[in-house]
Amino acid sequence: MLEDIPEEIELEPDYLDECTVVLPERQAPEKVLESLAKRLQPKSTVMGFTPVVKVPYVSLLRDHVIDNDIAVEVIIEDTNRCQFPEFASVQSALIDLASANQFQLLETPVSLPYGLWIIEYEKAMSPIVALLGYSDRGVIAGGMVWEENSVYEWAEQRYEQVRESAVRTSISLTGSEEDL
Length: 180
Prior knowledge:
This protein has helices at 13-17, 31-37, 55-68, 88-99, 152-163; strands at 20-22, 45-50, 71-77, 103-108, 115-120, 128-134, 140-146, 167-168, 170-173, 176-179. It starts with 12 loop residues before the first helix and ends with a strand. The protein is 28% helix and 29% strand. The longest helix has 14 residues, at 55-68. It has 5 helices and 10 strands, in the order αβαβαβαββββαβββ. It is an alpha+beta fold. Helix 3 (55-68) runs parallel beside helix 4. It has an 8-stranded mixed sheet with strand order 1-7-6-5-2-3-4-8, sandwiched between helices. A two-stranded antiparallel ribbon has the order 9-10.
């Protein structure tokens, strides 16, 4: 798992003692994301960035945002935007997300070598932080999940560093602009 996490992350060694490692199933790498989705509660807020946009990932996000009144802000690499018109199911999921009014898609020119997700709860619960590593094929290789506050500040700083370079985006879906 650690082989797929870039060295520039500068993760404190103590943080590794406090995380749960989640590995994908061979034929279902999205199982890592599904394990995070199970932790979502109505009125949660999810912030994250990802170097990879795949149909099962977007569909899973749509299902939880719409069904559970969850606010989401996702940052993707600007090179991922060109993929959307190619996949009808991604188009459909993005249109649903755009109509939910609780979804913001941002893009950045910065290369994202890993995924980072922060789940905050409306109630006084500790946030969840997940760091995802990807194989060279763009498949989730595994994740590290923290349910303690210790890594939250670190994750929030990393997220804000990426967000500084990101802009809200509109994506052309089937020839029309949907404002996400």
